[in-house]
Amino acid sequence: MVSRHAKWIFMALGVLGILTVLPTVTSWSDASRMATVQSLVDFHTFSIDRSVFHRTGDKVFIDGHFYSDKLAVPSLIGAIVYLPLSALGLKLGYGWNIAYYVITLLTVKAFWLAGLIAFYRTLAITPLTDRKRIWLTLALGVGSLYFTWSATFNNHSLAASWVAIGFSFLMRAREGIRTARSLFAAGLFFALAGGSDVPILAVLGGFLLYVLADPRLRTHAGWYLLPLPLTALPALWVNYRISGSLVPVQLVPAYFQYPGTPWKPTALTGAGMNRGAFLAEYAFHCLVGKRGFLLYNPLLFLAVPLLLRELATKRPFFREARVVCLVTVPIVAYYLLYSHNYSGWSYSIRWFVPLLPLLFFFLYPSLAGRLRIPFFIAFAAGTAIAVIGLINPWSWLDLSPYPLIANLRTIPHLP
Description:
By secondary structure, this protein is mostly helical. 60% of the residues lie in helices and 2% in strands. The mean pLDDT is 94.
């Protein structure tokens, strides 16, 4: 149940959400997704050749036509919202754009709020009082990069929301609440997250092991797996329509090679493994350096040790901690080993945002005893960092290699 105080907080967060959607397409990434949305609705094709966003660099070239290189699920959802808007004459375009604002509000931002409600409900299984559950929910909602990335159309915020919702349903199954239905919903949202952000499929797989290891849940494991083909079919259909193959276009390097391409074969994530000094430097700047995900989410300096303590001492959520470690380490390691562009022009490392709801769950002991003061200090710092990120989640790194500084320099009259 949601308490009366929590209802008021979520209403306030809803208003905050309306006020914190950026109404402009500002990066190759969201331009690529909007190109698909516009092409599907206005031109009835997956080809982005006629879209106003066709100049985006995030595209592939197949049989004489350009297509977005992004996974289809977020764009298909965006197209559903855009369909009535386009019919009313509200067309997508560059600059301040009502259609883009509404699409982002009713998808990314709406799921941000739904993810926070789900996170709050999940915390009911902890010893926290209702007031402390609200504080921890606010920590995730406005004190982390989850807030920053909810301001623009992207797959990482959507995946984070779906992970939060899926985890909530999984914990309902753990508590024996409509076990089969809860497992189906958990599998559905984890599959949606993986369908929009492929490495996050590790979350679906990790919690499958969790389900199979629990005799109470094992008999309903089929319900958990049932949504996977349902969510995979749209993506496979889109791949086939575009290339005549079920292989995702993102996995075919040849599609990125066309006259004027910004992509060298070695520049694509997964093209080669980082080693030696470069790996050490790259990992440092991804985690605690100029793009440091830990620095941009200071509450993780509490969450990670508390997660490890849960794991080491076999506390009440030992099994959940084991799965979170099992999926977090490979996802982070994959990007550290096989990427080298710090997730492009972005405010910190956007690739890791979907892990935040799982990691923040283990902050629950920090709201008691000696950790309360560090919690609120980190919460305040995280909120300030996240708000600065709202200036532009796709930071203009030609202004500074440090995204926070780059964002501040976009404010008029600042050096």
